């Protein structure tokens, strides 16, 4: 698809290596990378504009204060296509990763491509390499379609994430392969009091036909920055491999918000540390102004038709005493544990139901809400 024949413009990148700092797109634009075209990100921080932190975060994730603008930017745009004949965008992230681990960053790391407050966006048929932080970032955006992309960063790259739908809705991610250092796909919606105040959820997200690896994180994660809420997410037909965790729901006191109405099905896992994680005490806070009584709601999580081989732990589900995770449903789950695994499931402050689950889940996942309430009294 292209907007060039609809009165829009096309920016054509021919074969070759093209070194650049951050640049911005316009509406009704198609950016097309020919086969053999490589956009190479400058490693000189002076080539990257510095911008204010996002209002739903109040500060940067890496450190307080401002952030470097992403390599390719779309701000308040509509009808934009970034595509090609398998062209490549290389972030040359190593220098950024070294600055992060040595605590020598002046501002927060940039991403490879970012759409902010935009709508009707397509990203397809491209390879994203060595992102300084995120490969594809959708923030405050609607109707974002990501199709046939490859995102790759070193498994040792610190907190690199493939695709991040953040306070965005009507997002489709399909037919893609992501191998990165931390999370392959991470859904977010703002951080503590800033995310609560901004109040824009991530919702109506469909992820299907994906191959995912999050080496030191999770193949698919929700949160932990989820203060605007995350709901109505469908994940179908995902192949998850060589990740610390397979599927992770993360939050903590002070976040507020919710993670609810999540349907995950037809998942194949291989060599995963912990297949399913729900953690109610995960992550840090932007500052000391958060409300400790802002308790997140995690409910109506449905996981079905999941198989796995060489799994370390089937599940670690730890809710919050004051706000237990509820209506967690497991059905037709079969996980083959790796040799030496002694504990299959660990659960607290979570309740739900299960059917045809191997290994046998913890008792909390065999109770309904009333039974859990009686047991907790």
UniProtKB/TrEMBL annotation:
GO terms for molecular function: lyase activity; polygalacturonase activity. InterPro entries: GH28_Enzymes, Glyco_hydro_28, PbH1, Pectin_lyas_fold, Pectin_lyase_fold/virulence. Gene3D superfamilies: Single-stranded right-handed beta-helix, Pectin lyase-like. It comes from the Eukaryota. GO terms for biological process: carbohydrate metabolic process. Keywords: Glycosidase, Hydrolase, Lyase. It holds the Pfam family Glyco_hydro_28. Belongs to the glycosyl hydrolase 28 family. This is F3E22.9 protein. It comes from Arabidopsis thaliana (Mouse-ear cress). The gene is F3E22.9.
């Amino acid at each position: 698809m292209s907007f060039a024949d609809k009165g829009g413009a096309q920016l054509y990148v021919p074969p070759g290596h093209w070194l650049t700092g951050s640049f911005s797109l316009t509406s009704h634009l198609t950016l097309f990378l020919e086969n053999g075209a490589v956009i190479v990100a400058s490693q000189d921080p002076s080539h990257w504009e510095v911008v204010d932190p996002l209002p739903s975060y109040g500060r940067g994730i890496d450190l307080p204060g401002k952030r470097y603008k992403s390599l390719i930017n779309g701000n308040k745009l509509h009808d934009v296509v970034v595509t090609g004949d398998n062209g490549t965008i290389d972030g040359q992230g190593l220098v950024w990763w070294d600055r992060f681990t040595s605590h020598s960053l002046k501002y927060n790391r940039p991403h490879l491509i970012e759409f902010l407050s935009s709508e009707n966006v397509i990203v397809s048929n491209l390879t994203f390499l060595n992102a300084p932080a995120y490969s594809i970032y959708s923030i405050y955006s609607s109707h974002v379609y990501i199709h046939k992309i490859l995102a790759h960063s070193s498994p040792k790259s610190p907190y690199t994430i493939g695709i991040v739908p953040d306070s965005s809705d009507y997002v489709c991610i399909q037919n893609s392969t992501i191998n990165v250092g931390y999370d392959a796909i991470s859904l977010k919606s703002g951080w503590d009091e800033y995310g609560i105040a901004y109040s824009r959820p991530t919702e109506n997200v469909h992820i299907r036909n994906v191959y995912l690896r999050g080496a030191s994180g999770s193949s698919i994660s929700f949160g932990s920055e989820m203060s605007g809420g995350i709901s109505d997410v469908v994940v179908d037909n995902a192949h998850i491999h060589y990740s610390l965790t397979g599927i992770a729901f993360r939050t903590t006191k002070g976040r507020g918000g919710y993670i609810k109405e999540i349907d995950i099905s037809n998942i194949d896992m291989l060599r995963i540390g912990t297949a399913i994680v729900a953690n109610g005490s995960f992550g840090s806070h932007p500052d000391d102004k958060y409300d400790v009584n802002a308790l997140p709601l995690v409910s109506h999580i449905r996981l079905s038709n999941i198989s796995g081989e060489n799994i370390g732990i089937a599940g670690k589900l730890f809710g919050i005493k004051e706000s237990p995770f509820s209506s967690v449903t497991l059905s037709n789950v079969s996980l083959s544990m790796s040799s030496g695994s002694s504990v299959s499931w660990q659960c607290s402050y979570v309740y739900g139901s299960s059917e045809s689950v191997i290994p046998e889940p913890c008792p909390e996942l065999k109770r309904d809400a009333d039974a859990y309430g009686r047991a907790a009294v």
